[in-house]
Design a protein that fits this description.
- This protein is of the alpha/beta class and 456 residues long.
- The protein contains 14 helices and 14 strands.
- The chain folds into two domains: 70 residues, no CATH class; 378 residues, Alpha-Beta Barrel (TIM Barrel), CATH 3.20.20.
- The strands form three sheets. Strands 11-10-9-8-7-6-12-13-14 form a nine-stranded mixed β-sheet.
- Helix 8 links the parallel strand 10 and strand 11.
- 36% of the residues are buried.
């Protein structure tokens, strides 16, 4: 038998014990040092072990810490990765009914020159012929897939709310007729949730159940970063009201706090306001502001490095736990990474013109499209090759990734950054700088729970 190549071994407060973590299974265990020699050899003979060590090895096998010498963990990881990547059981669309936006955020990744309105020769809102073609594509796919998943995107999607409501009802009807699943979410700045007293109910009726909304700190910070286009008017209070309306309808909110060097020292003050407004039970997380496109190069100097962001995020998660926020009740913990939507089959991004992309970081950037939904079968060779470039990207092509023990929980990070920002070099994820910290936090928590239950 052989130890896993993805084992991490760290000391504990008990000098006679160590903590072991496996990134391929995310298993965590505490073991006696007297047995740890089995994890520090290239291989060992199971049959030659005494009974007590055989029992110990059996437990290690169940956690993936030890395996049969014939096993190839890297190939197993590749298989799992590609099974997920080439899975055709669902159809996933990110749809922008408009690329127009009512906000003028200073760090927006959208590049100058991307289509915004008809003055640029493009559609402000998705026209009827594009909508009908989308419905036909979904109707055809519904005969073979098990679910349809939609993310409403923009620009600001709620500027095109009537399109969203109409398409939603028609897509829902298609899924119900074919007895398949339907999932929908929305990424919105939240400002227009209060513009119509019926809008939240209409969103619920459209079965959009999850919303990502951003607040970048308390009002004095947020209002300087996420302002209305053409106005310096505040946006914070109205967004907060929208979040409360969603919660009142039992809709799930993921609150994102975008942080960089300019707001990192004040971002946590937002928690006071959330607590005062009875919002401790919504999901809250930090977003790392980074200059990934030409549209945000102007703020590159204020962007935190990954190491800096990691330290900020540690403090954030510790604060959530200390203050009893729902998302902080359990320590942050790694999980197995899968291929992102941009490099998966049956996953597409659609702009108002009908142009299709693989990654939402490219939406509106016409040279990056993989075709147009109106004549997708007649697309240019360059468009097909751009899609193939996305579909064939994988972390296993990089020697540093292949030999890295964090590969299962990282998978090379963001493909867009690797291919187009870093010139074919993957980004190391936050786990590189924080894995031991977060695993130790979970270890401590589990020990406390066991102690409270009278377990050793």
């Amino acid at each position: 038998m052989i130890p896993s190549r993805y084992n991490f071994i760290w000391p504990t407060d008990d000098p006679e014990k160590v903590m072991i973590f496996n990134s391929l299974t995310t298993s965590l265990a505490e073991v006696e040092k007297t047995y740890i020699d089995l994890l520090n050899v290239q291989q060992f003979d199971y049959d030659a072990l005494p009974i007590d060590k055989k029992q110990f090895v059996d437990e290690l096998v169940s956690g993936g810490f030890v395996l049969d010498e014939a096993a190839d963990e890297l190939k197993t990881l590749k298989y799992a990765y590609n099974s997920n990547k080439y899975d055709r059981t669902g159809l996933v669309f990110t749809i922008a009914p408009t690329l127009s936006c009512n906000f003028d955020c200073n760090y927006c990744y959208e590049q100058p020159g991307r289509s915004r309105d008809k003055r640029d020769g493009h559609n402000t809102f998705m026209p009827e012929n594009v909508q009908q073609r989308l419905l036909k594509l979904i109707e055809r796919a519904a005969k073979t897939v098990k679910f349809i998943s939609i993310t409403w995107y923009g620009g600001e999607p709620l500027l095109g709310k009537d399109i969203i409501f109409d398409l939603s009802q028609k897509i829902i009807a298609i899924t119900e007729e074919n007895k398949i699943g339907y999932f929908a979410e929305m990424i919105t700045n939240g400002y227009l949730l209060t513009g119509d007293q019926d809008i939240v109910q209409k969103l619920k009726d459209s079965r959009i159940v999850t919303f990502q909304i951003t607040l970048d700190g308390p009002p004095d910070v947020h209002n300087k970063r996420r302002m209305l286009k053409g106005s310096s008017g505040p946006t914070f209070d109205r967004i907060l009201e929208g979040i409360q309306l969603l919660k009142a309808k039992d809709l799930k909110v993921y609150l994102r706090i975008n942080v960089d060097r300019s707001n990192s020292d004040k971002a946590l003050k937002l928690l006071d306001i959330l607590e005062d407004n009875n919002l401790k039970d919504i999901s809250i997380y930090f977003g790392h502001v980074s200059a990934i496109t030409a549209g945000c190069k102007s703020i590159e100097s204020s962007c935190a490095t990954m190491e800096e962001f990691t330290l900020l995020n540690r403090t954030f998660h510790e604060t959530l736990m200390q203050r009893g926020f729902k998302t902080g009740q359990t320590p942050y913990y790694p999980r197995i990474a899968h291929a992102c939507g941009a490099i998966r089959m049956n996953s597409f991004v659609l702009d108002p013109d009908g142009d299709m992309y693989k990654c939402w970081s490219e939406i509106g950037d016409k040279p990056a499209r993989i075709g147009n939904i109106l004549d997708f079968q007649q697309r240019a060779k360059g468009e097909r090759m751009h899609e193939i470039r996305w579909l064939t990207w994988e972390p296993f092509e990089y020697a540093d990734c292949v030999k890295c023990k964090m590969l299962p929980i990282c998978m090379g990070g963001c493909g867009y950054r690797a291919m187009f920002v870093n010139r074919d070099r993957p980004d190391c994820a936050e786990w590189k700088y924080s894995l031991e910290h977060y695993v130790r936090a979970r270890f401590k928590r589990e020990k406390e729970i066991r102690a409270a239950c009278g377990e050793s």
